[in-house]
Amino acid sequence: MDYKKDIVNYRLSETLISMIKSPVLLVSLDQLKHPHQVITCNKEACEYFNLNPHKVEGMEVIHLKMNDYEVVPWKNVVATQNADILGYTIAGQGTKGFTKYYMVTSRPSFLDKKKYAFIALFDITKDVVKDNALMVQQQMQKIIGDLLCLTSLDKDLKEILDIILEKIVSVNWTSLENKGCIFIYNQDKDRLVMAVQKNIDDDVLSVCAEVPLGKCLCGVAGRSKEIYFTNHLDALHVVKTKGMTEHGHCCVPILSSNEDLLGVLNLYVKYNHHFNHEEIFFLQSVASVIAIVLRYKMEHNKNEELKKQIFMATKMASLGELAAGVAHEINNPLMVIRGNLERLKDQLQDDQHPKSAQYMAILNAQEKSISTIISIASSLKGYARTKDSADNPINVHQVIMETINLIRYIYKRDGIEFDIRLEACHYYVNSTYAKLQQILMNLFSNSRDALSVAKTKIITIQTKNTDNHFILKVADSGHGIKKENRKKVFDKYFTTKDVGKGTGLGMGIVLSIVQSMGARVSLSSKLGVGTIFSFVFEVTHKIEMRFINQNNKISVTKLKGKVLVVDDSQELLEIINFYLTKLGLVVSPTRSPKEALHLLEHDQYDYLITDLKMDEMGGIELAQEIRKCGFKAIKIIVISADIDALNKLNEQSEKYHNAFLQKPFNKDQLLEILLSLK
Predict the structure, then answer these.
(1) What domains can you pick out in the chain, each with its CATH number?
(2) Is the pLDDT of residue 433 over 70?
(3) What is the rounded CA–CA span in Å between residue 248 and residue 194?
């Protein structure tokens, strides 16, 4: 070759390239005689290109290959040797899934500059990776920041997740395909439910709308709470459809700060792609952001629900006043109607009219309808009692029945039946009506949700006594509660319902009420069978004021004695007079409390029955005056149409009366309370 004629410059060239620690080649530029042939190279080039140093001379440059990398575009390199540039960067994708970067420079040699040139390769992978990492990090920070800002948007959860998914799949420095989905974990079903998706085929959507934990790639990632990556359709890719092309998946679990599963991010990956550290870190960061969004939206929904509850509490306070007013206004007329029905029935029993039986059936039907109205009006007392400040002896059986009466029709429309087994003999506990009713309403509401998909829909309420305790059990025939969730049932904000449904406050409130009463609550549950909530209350035997169970019926008994009755309603006076007379008592009715005081001064009475609210003087004020006047022996019974009257009487520091009776009452109920005072 021509270079051998210039032996000095040739030796100088050899010496120079041997001193450089990067691969360097001396190549021919003579297109006609020796097109792009290697003349010599240093030791580093032989090692790098896997060349035999004794056979390197005469090899064509275009046949040189970097170990495990693509062919270097040598023609382009050689063509730039006369340009006034340092060189340019080439990259090769290796079989091991990573990339190396080189700065290639072409410079004239000491030989004929038109015929020979040095070509050097400098490994700049670390610098490029560092620069790329900085760029990726900056992009990641921007994307993560943008995603976090989505929490402040006034959009629902689905809209926000849609935006997040769109941003993820459009990142250009990852090897993600433009398709994927986000699942949200439904604890109740133990399944991943697809919330949003992008570009997923319809036949896949129909199969993957819900994915059980442990099934397919997403289910495996959800169950293990670890990233699952595959770059091809492997054995765990259970869902396969006709014509499905090769692709990979990266399934990233979405976890809360407590490592609880919230969902799974599923992204499609290019076939045979090898994920690098930056991509994994990015997707983990995105999953953390989605977790923050989910928790934020859940907390936001809870706050909104709390606002609704505060609004409802205010509304319920107004409803309580309305309920008390309405009940008071209808209870007096109801008592008049019921009393007159009893008077008619009493007369029919004495008459020998040929149609007595027919008329009696009509009156009985009317009385049954009146009893239904009375029961509904009585059930409103839980809403009227908005100022329960102190615990008092409460008839739990009465609260149970009246609460069920409020909701029975609504639940019946859902196919839910109540199985009531009130077996306790001692059923008074220290509490308030409102607290007990709230416990029951929360339990019934949870049972209703649990029975929504059940074949048999039954809520069982059972009471019994054990030693000195009252036991209440509320059971449903629903789907049951998973073992891992049973300890969380009473936790604040815990719910197994879908995002946006339920606040998780109900059972937490139940627990706080139970604890404030010094009682205990526990649960047992079996999947597919149902759940039982058990309460243990201490029975109270100290009942400061006697009042009766209006459902009780006792045999007619003749009494002896004199009764002074005070009520400013003439119709009610006549009904009460009728009842007392039938019971064998001598009655002195009056519409004036002041006249009642005058009568007491001139005659002796065994009982005084007085209405609580009267224009001239209230019943409690009358009782107080009677005690001040020295009438200690007379038994005073306060009656009222106000459904919150008993609670108000219990708030009084000093008692001037002996018993209370809620209007509307009948003869048997009046008899029972008179007998209790003997």
Answers:
(1) 2-123 (3.30.450.20), 136-298 (3.30.450.40), 309-538 (3.30.565.10), 562-676 (3.40.50.2300)
(2) yes
(3) 19
Sign of CA dihedral 350, 352, 357, 363: negative
Helix H, strand E, coil C: the string for 583-607 is: CCCEEEEECCHHHHHHHHHHCCCCE
Q: Could you tell me if 611 and 640 are in contact, meaning their C-beta atoms sit under 8 angstroms apart?
A: yes
Residue owning tokens 């990556």: 229
Q: What is the pLDDT of residues 408-421, one digit of tens each?
A: 888 988 899 999 99
Report the side by side order of strands in the sheet with 458-466. 417-422, 458-466, 469-476, 530-538, 520-526
Q: 263-322 pLDDT, tens per residue? A: 999 888 888 777 666 677 778 888 888 888 787 777 766 666 656 655 655 555 565 566
- E strand or H helix that includes residue 621: helix 619-628
pLDDT tens digit sequence for 572-609: 999 999 999 999 999 999 999 999 999 999 899 999 99
Q: Which residue, among 274, 285, 201, has the nearest Cα to 244 in the 3D structure?
A: 201
CA distance 520 to 535: 6
DSSP letter (8 states) at residue 28: E
- Ramachandran region of residue 415, left (φ > 0), alpha (ψ -120 to 50) or beta? left
Q: Is 318 exposed, middle or buried (CB count within 10 Å of its CB: 0-12, 13-18, 19+)?
A: exposed
